[in-house]
Design a protein that fits this description.
The structure is a single chain. The longest helix has 17 residues, at 72-88. By secondary structure, the protein is an alpha/beta fold. The radius of gyration is 23 Å and the shape is globular. Strand 1 (61-64) and strand 2 form a beta hairpin. Among the domains are: 72-219, Rossmann fold, CATH 3.40.50.980; 442-535, 2-Layer Sandwich (GMP Synthetase, Chain A, domain 3). It has 19 helices and 25 strands. The strands form five sheets. It has an eight-stranded mixed beta sheet, sandwiched between helices.
Length: 541
């Protein structure tokens, strides 16, 4: 097995720890002491990082959103006050609370409060409609929802027995709101929970109903943490603009890692490309956490708008949540510098690989190399390793993987490794490439066809804004490809010319039978294309 597939397990562990300590500052004895003390008080969970930072540097700014600015001491004390209020509202250790909150300080305070109580949290997608929300609330046995008032109509579909507490609200909210609880209760110490609360993060649901992926707060290990810190440009005390949704595993991961590093988080409830650049400039942010479609939307702004903003402070644009096209990565780095990192993983499997700016320059489209503490193998349908360069199913193992689905069951396992649900291969330098979902591959006339290859080819055209390709049934060949493209402003659509473009560059069986002009592609809240919606989208006659 190659060193890449083993995640460099043969490297010096002590040397790696020392290197990460020097680079990040996290292993400074005084810093570690504050984390150990906070862990003794609260166990594991998000609140531990905020408690540690509150004791180490209480007056450092922790959160900046559209309304407020709070220090670590203020966030920690407000979280304790809210925890006491939640307990008086009948929320106790072991209960399940739904969190339906956009990116603002209320999300952090709510998550800290439930963690301090030993309450389980289910992170709800802010894009849920009422019926979908009710389904998840009932399936996950949620007894209370903490929510922004804009979701009041959806929350009204939940069972009447479900308590409701407002997070963000306009005007008066009454006693059952986070702001009221923070004001009315003293931030007294709480007893350490007998069991730490469990966070349930919902899968993206791009192919069906989102599943609940339960992850215990302690499901992490030192090797995995060191492996990620080796790859990403994280340091103690940085300022981070987190635009990735906090309810998604990537956004939530930023809070977990950043709180342990004492980061100052800049949060905006909704992503707007121009306002995001304004925040990067105004706050001189060093880190920017995104999903790839956000990069695309920023780069779609006129050059005269992009030129107005100063972003030289940015050393890490951290992208995850969906595929990062190679062409998009190069365009971002050509405009904003070589600061782009692609984090490939999943809600269930956590980290799989990380591409650095040099990886993305040398091999655009790569998912990167395997970090320390992670093992990745490419297996065939019989569970046997495939030769380097050949496509197979990606299986991954690390100490951060989820426990199980809330409805029972796990992902497919092979020799202790978990299927991530994607197809991929390693190149000669040990870099991982992802060909798409293993259930996206189609067999057309006896030939294996990967839609991702055609998507990337179309997306690289200068006149196309974005593209998606799916497999559909075909009476003659079994299956065939169907493409969807969104043109850039002012560009014309010519289906036959586009099919000729593909035919000149790829094998005949990879040419879509039809390419459909779309005004936009259906996406979920994290930017993933909803291919199940495209499959129901009949082409015009």
């Amino acid at each position: 097995m190659s060193p890449a597939e083993h995640g460099k397990t043969a490297s010096s562990w002590l040397g790696a720890v020392l290197d990460v300590s020097r680079k990040t500052g996290i292993l400074d004895p005084r810093w570690m002491y504050s984390i150990v003390q906070a862990s003794r008080k609260h166990g594991t969970g998000l609140v531990t990082g905020f408690a540690a930072a509150a004791s180490r540097h209480p007056h450092q700014v922790a959160l900046i959103d559209e309304r407020s600015q709070f220090t670590y001491k203020q966030v920690y004390e407000r979280s304790l006050s809210i925890a006491h209020g939640l307990r008086d509202l009948g929320i106790h250790e072991g209960d399940q609370v739904g969190i339906l909150i956009r990116n603002h300080a209320g999300f952090v305070e709510a998550m800290n409060a439930v963690a301090a109580l030993g309450v389980n949290a289910c992170l709800l997608n802010t894009g849920f409609a009422g019926p979908q929300l009710r389904t998840v609330v009932e399936r996950e046995n949620i007894s209370a929802i903490i929510f922004d008032d804009e979701f009041e109509e959806a929350v009204a579909t939940a069972p009447s027995s479900c308590s409701r507490i407002l997070a963000w609200h306009e005007g008066q909210a009454g006693e059952a709101s986070l702001s009221a609880l923070a004001q009315h209760y003293s931030p007294r110490a709480l007893p350490r929970p007998k069991r730490p609360g469990v966070a349930t993060i919902l899968t993206s649901g791009t192919t069906g109903t989102p599943k609940g992926a339960r992850r215990s707060s302690s499901s992490s290990d030192a090797q995995s943490a060191i492996g990620v810190l080796e790859k990403l440009p994280l340091r103690v005390g940085q300022k981070a603009l987190v635009s990735a949704p906090l309810f998604h595993s990537w956004g939530f991961t930023q809070l977990i890692m950043g709180s342990l590093l004492g980061h100052c988080f800049v949060l905006q409830r909704r992503f707007d490309p121009e306002k995001t650049l304004t925040a990067l400039d105004q706050h001189s942010a060093e880190l920017f956490a995104v999903v790839p479609v956000m990069l695309q939307r920023i780069l779609s702004l006129d050059s005269n708008i992009l030129d107005r903003f100063e972003t030289s402070s940015l050393i890490g644009t951290l992208s995850s949540g969906s595929a990062l096209p190679g062409e998009l990565a190069l365009r971002w780095m050509d405009r904003f510098g070589d600061n782009l990192y692609n984090f490939y993983g999943s809600t269930e499997a956590a980290q799989t690989s990380i591409a650095t700016p040099s990886d993305l320059r040398e091999a655009p489209g790569t998912a990167g190399q395997i970090p320390r503490g992670t093992t990745v193998r490419i297996l065939d349908d019989k569970g046997q390793p495939v030769p380097r360069g050949e496509v197979g199913r990606i299986f991954v193992g690390n100490g951060n993987q989820f426990d199980e689905y809330t409805g029972g069951g796990r992902k497919e396992m092979a020799d202790g490794l978990m299927s991530i649900g994607d197809l991929g291969w390693f190149d000669e330098k040990g870099r991982l490439f992802v060909g798409g979902r293993d259930d996206d591959m189609i067999v057309s006339g006896g030939e294996n066809v990967f839609p991702r290859e055609v998507e990337d080819l179309l997306s690289d055209r200068p006149d196309i804004h974005e593209a998606a390709v799916i497999g559909v049934p075909d009476p003659e060949f079994g299956q065939r490809l169907r493409g969807f493209v969104v043109m850039k402003a002012g560009e014309s659509f010519d289906e036959e010319e586009m099919k000729s473009f593909v035919r000149e560059r790829l094998a005949r069986h990879k040419v879509p039978r039809e390419i459909i002009h779309a005004s936009e592609l259906p996406r979920n809240q994290t930017g993933k294309v909803l291919k199940r919606v495209l499959r129901d989208w009949a082409p015009p006659e």
